[in-house]
Design a protein that fits this description.
With 458 residues, the protein is mainly α. Helices cover 71% and strands 0% of the residues.
Length: 458
């Protein structure tokens, strides 16, 4: 079930809201929480009910691990708990990638396993690893099963983030304010949801086929075609992920739950460090807290700092997908970060416009690997971007309208306020009601065959 589908907007969401607020009205807090647990399971089961069993088992074993750590603090239990999560992720996400590479290296013919990647496995695995690590460090952490289950399953963040921490979500399930009707939260939530829907169905879905033409069909894209394809995907993933994030935060607001920001105008960044502070912010936070700092962070000298940055970003790339294109994407961002930190250490300053342009081009170059189906395609598009495939002013795989909308999108992402800024200024009055109704009507009329959000595949 997709956020941008009629069955979600007109059936699932109203029913879930009704049950939750009915329980609140009757002062039934535990049933209110359990209703969200149940409806979140229904939401997840919509794709494949078999994997609902998997996520229930995962929650049960991780919760049990947390309780055992709370009672004993034994290192063996901690290692077993983290290993379970990593092995689960490795089996479902990386097993065939490993087999394919073994076959290529050793010229073997091992058959790939018939494995379907469970939806959101990367997200709910990281969420629960963080919980186990925190309980191991602080044995005072203890939650009831209902709250823990909702923390993992809460449908707004379950499929594609944000990657939430238990300490910022579960306490809200005990907060008096969560179980009161808050019209400002509901208003902000509805506005954010429809802003996100607008970004997805009007903007991201427009750029999607244009990007696909170049990445999937053009064998040797010319200069204009390569840049049109690369920039179309750059805008597609921006508005797709930004749209999903807005919808997720908006949905949480409707239930008086505040989730961490995950997206804050990353294409306005003047350097790669700032880009990673504003793009997929909760993934950056997780990688920093549970990988970069445990590796030593910047505490062991510059060389070690750069090695830690590279390792963190390479694993961050691999987290996104089991493929060398994702590894190279992560590696490129690792190199970018190392160069950025070196420039800062040397106190080299660059004009903000030049810095933003360089940063943006670097991000676009990395997105080419992220989107490409294989390395050959990625390098062909890069060759096109530097003119090695020729320049054709009447390109087959790019249109004047596409170029116009790319320019329009570039202006928008660099000048307009982001969704969070809009939501923070919302007031329940006629002006905001009219604005919300307008973008809702425009978005709903454009829903035809709802497409998945890009981050659903991770």
């Amino acid at each position: 079930m997709l956020f941008n589908s009629f069955e979600f907007i007109f059936i699932y969401l109203p029913l879930t809201i009704f049950i939750f607020y009915f329980c609140i009205n009757k002062k039934l807090r535990l049933p209110a929480i359990l209703s969200l647990v149940l409806m979140s399971l229904v939401f997840y089961s919509y794709w494949n009910y078999r994997y609902a069993i998997l996520i229930v088992i995962s929650i049960a074993l991780n919760y049990l691990t947390g309780r055992l750590l709370h009672g004993t603090g034994r290192k063996e239990i901690f290692i077993a708990g983290v290993s379970f999560n990593l092995l689960l992720l490795a089996y479902y996400k990386y097993c065939n990638f490993f087999i394919d590479n073994i076959n290529k290296i050793f010229q073997t013919n091992i058959s790939s396993l018939n494995i379907v990647l469970p939806l959101a496995i990367s997200f709910f695995t990281f969420t629960q690893i963080a919980y186990i690590v925190d309980v191991y460090k602080n044995r005072n952490i203890k939650y009831d099963l209902a709250s823990y289950s909702l923390f993992v399953l809460f449908f707004p963040h379950l499929i594609a983030g944000p990657i939430v921490y238990h300490k910022e979500i579960i306490p809200q399930f005990k907060d008096e304010k969560t179980f009161k009707v808050n019209y400002l939260n509901i208003s902000a939530g509805i506005l954010l949801f429809f802003i996100g829907l607008f970004k997805k169905v009007i903007i991201a879905d427009y750029f999607s086929p244009h990007a696909a033409l170049v990445f999937d069909l053009a064998e040797h894209p010319t200069f204009i075609e390569a840049w049109a394809g690369a920039l179309s995907y750059t805008m597609q993933i921006y508005f797709d992920f930004s749209g999903y994030t807005d919808m997720a935060l908006g949905l949480a607001y409707m239930f008086n739950i505040k989730m961490p920001r995950n997206f804050n105008s990353p294409y306005k960044s003047n350097n790669i460090i700032d880009f990673w502070r504003t793009w997929h912010m909760t993934l950056s936070r997780f990688l920093k807290d549970y990988l970069y700092i445990p590796l030593g962070g910047n505490r062991s000298g510059k060389l070690r700092k750069y090695i830690n940055l590279m390792m963190t970003m390479l694993l961050g790339g691999l987290w996104h997908g089991a493929g060398w294109t994702f590894v190279i994407w992560g590696g490129l961002h690792g190199i970018y970060l190392c160069v950025n930190h070196a420039f800062r250490a040397a106190k080299i300053e660059i004009n903000w416009f030049i810095a933003r342009t360089i940063t943006f081009i670097a991000v676009v170059a990395a997105w080419i690997f992220f989107r490409a189906k294989d390395l050959k395609t990625a390098f062909n598009i890069l060759k096109g971007c530097v003119g090695f495939n020729g320049i054709d002013f009447h390109p087959e795989y790019a249109t004047k309208a596409e170029v116009f909308f790319i320019i329009l999108a570039l202006i928008a992402v660099n000048t307009l306020p982001n969704s969070i800024q809009l939501a923070n200024n919302i007031r329940p009055n006629i002006k905001w009601l009219a604005f919300t109704l307008l973008i809702a009507l425009v978005s709903l009329t454009m829903i035809n065959n709802p497409s998945e959000f890009l981050y659903f595949q991770f």
